[in-house]
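Write out the bound-state structure for zinc ion.
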Amino acid sequence: MKVLAIGCHPDDIEIGCAGTLAKYVKLGHVIIQPDELGPMRIGEAKKAGSMAGIKVRTLDIGDLVVYDGKREHRDAVVELICEEQPDVIITHYPNDYMPDHTAVSKLVFDASFAASVAHYPATKGHPCEVTPIYYMDTLAGVNFMPTEYVDITDFIDLKIQMLECHESQLKWMRDHDHIDFAEFVKTCARYRGLQCGVGYAEGFTKCYAWPKVVPGTRLP
Ligand SMILES: [Zn+2]
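---
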C-alpha cells in the first residue's frame, strides 16, 4: 500500500502520525510526506523522515497563505496525488487549532476529488481513484474523538526521536512558550494509548464522504 501523509508544517507529521507511518514502513508499505516549509526546516523534516524510511517532498507554500481556495495550491496537491497514486491519505482534521491546518485539511479534501477527474488539467491525464482520507489528531487532542487507533507502542521512541529532529521548533517552544514539546507529544500518545488499552497510540477519524468510504480500515 502507498500512503500519502500531508501535513501543513514540517513537524506536524511527527506530532500526529509518525508512529503510524513508521509502522506502515515496518509492514512493507511506502510513505510519502510532502510539507510546506521554510528552507531551514526542510533539512529537519528530511532528517526526521529518513529515520523511519519516509520520502519527504516539499510544496513550499508560506505560513498563513495556504489555500483559501487558491487554484494553484489545489493543483499542486492534485499533481502530487496523481504522481504518487496513494492508496490512503492522512492529513489534518478539518477543525484543528490554527488556520493553516484547517486550510490544508480542506485543500487535501478538494484536491483528492479533483485528482480523480480525468479531464481536470492538473491530473495531466493520470487521474487516480478517489482516495480514502484519515484525519490525524488535533494539537493536544482538543475537540477530537478518535474513531480509530493505531497501536504505536513499539514506535514511540522513534516518534519522539523524529520529533526532536525539528530542533528549531522545539527550541522556540521551550524558549517562547516554556513547553517541553517532546513530553507534550508523548503525553498525548500515552493518553490515546490509555483509551484503547495499549501503551501508546495515535488516534484518527475517517473522512466520511462518498465515495471516499471503503470497507474495513487502511490504517496499520
Ligand atoms: Zn502545524
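---
Helices lie at 12-26, 39-51, 71-84, 99-114, 156-164, 167-177, 181-196.
Residues 99-114 form the longest helix (16 residues).
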